[in-house]
Amino acid sequence: MANVIVIGAQWGDEGKGKITDLLSRSADVVVRYQGGVNAGHTVVVQDQTFKLHLIPSGILSPDTQCIIGSGTVIDPKVLLEEIDQLDELGVSTQNLYISQTAHVTMPYHRLIDQASEDRRGDQKIGTTKRGIGPTYADKSERTGIRVIDLVEPEGFEERIAWAVNYKNEVLETLYGIERLDPKTVVEQYRGYADRLRPHVVDSSLTIDEAVRGRKNILFEGAQGTLLDLDHGTYPYVTSSNPISGGACVGAGVGPTIIDRVIGVAKAYTTRVGEGPFPTELHDEIGEILGDRGAEFGTTTGRRRRCGWFDAVIGRYAVRINGLDCLAVTKLDVLDGLEEIKVCVAYRIGDEVCHHLPSSARRFAKCEPIYKTLPGWKQPTTECRTLEDLPKEALSYLKFLAELMKVPIAIVSLGASRDQTIIVEDPIHGPKRALLDAQGVPV
Ligand code: IMP
Ligand code: MG
After folding, report:
1. In the prediction, which pLDDT does 317 show?
2. 289-301 b/e with 16+ CB inside 10 Å = b?
3. Of 187, 286, 408, 439, which is least packed with CB atoms within 10 Å of its CB?
4. What pLDDT sits at residue 21?
5. What is the distance between the alpha carbons of residues 114 and 374, in angstroms, rounded to a whole number?
6. Tally of helices (H runs) and strands (E runs) in the chain
């Protein structure tokens, strides 16, 4: 048995949905530990496409318990829509559990997210406008509404009405937005609460029971390492901790129960929203990656910015998350390219920089130093073992493993479950991978 954290090693959208879906077949419990409806996973199962924002993709496995943990922020309206969507498709949500200490996104959070983005002008972050930042801000400010406040009948009305009135001042005075009617919000959220109540639990206890029962637990990160509030490319980050360290805080477990940390990285890089992106391509290759990779946000539909793989970021993700191994996704998107570049370091003026700079100003000045590798002509979408891969594709993977000093355990070559090379089962296998850190198959 193993308790595993799966995180995004780049700026989100690495294909974690597919990898957690694969791994959750071996998991008894899947826990989302941070983020909210800013996330979006697209999971394809037998030609059916599921778009999930809050509910872990593990819900598609009938026996898997899915827990939306304490560190998440929950927009009840969107969550209920997801539950309804799953119901319609015949997927049971009986195994869905919601932490009573997660924070709740309120209507004013969305309004403030939108208004503050508009007001920032060229300082805008490019948020998903789902109210994520304002919900976490209220959590820190200690004016937030928690799930427990929704589902406990005593004090419910007073609590919500107080919060709405408090925020009305901000809406009206700071942003010139019409005040919300506390009564309307109370009624709306009472309705949500009634529907969500059967799912609400003390999630730390639920997870602890699973730990003691020696179950396989998968902690599913949303967004990615570089969007981490503390360790990402601040201020162009989200307001939670997607890194592996966030799993313990957001799930309410101790670090001693974690066995493995798996990073997911695309074979190239994408980013949505604002902020520096050294390997971004503004040329035809960028277009090709975007089109072939269908690089549009699941949540906002925005076109993602695309560029070459950045190993400086990769190494950073290995360090910050303590990665045991990597899952490389969308390798097939690179099929047919004449040559493929990998950023091995940055140049800032005359200086060569091997580590991600903390300063956003310095990061914006980073020029990628590339190593160019030969591409491959044959499609990889039907490959099921490393031996099936064109030799240039295998060399590319080995080069990445070597550069980042991390073994590659999984390679994904398309959206469907079977378009995958499992080099080493990261849950059941021994703690090594066939492509070891030196890129040497063992
Ligand atoms: P927020 O999380 O909506 O506050 O957005 C902050 C930044 O994180 C923006 O650059 C968003 O584009 C980015 N972001 C948030 N969620 C995701 C995600 O699931 N995938 C990729 N980028 C995201
Ligand atoms: Mg996404």
Report:
1. 98
2. bbebbebebebbe
3. 187
4. 84
5. 44
6. 14, 20
CA atoms within 13 Å, Cβ hemisphere of 240: 36
Closest CA to 329 of 243, 402, 416: 416
CA atoms of 240 and 227, how far apart (whole Å): 8
The 3-state DSSP class for residue 51 equals: strand
**Beta pairing partners, 198:** none
Q: 186, 182, 52, 174: which is closest to 112 by C-alpha?
A: 174
Alpha helices in 132-202 (DSSP H): 132-141, 147-151, 156-169, 175, 182-196
Pairing status of strand 305-307 against strand 48-52: unpaired
Q: Residue of the nearest CA to atom 10 in ligand 1?
A: 273
Q: Is 128 in the pocket of ligand 1 (CB under 6 A)?
A: yes
Q: Judge whether 354 counts as a catalytic residue.
A: no
pLDDT 10s digits, 11-69? 999 999 889 888 888 899 999 999 999 998 776 666 777 788 999 988 888 899 999 99
What does the pLDDT read at residue 426? 76
Place of tokens 């594709």: 393
Give rounded-to-5 percent helix, strand, coil for the chain: 40, 20, 40
Shortest-distance ligand to the CA of residue 12:
1
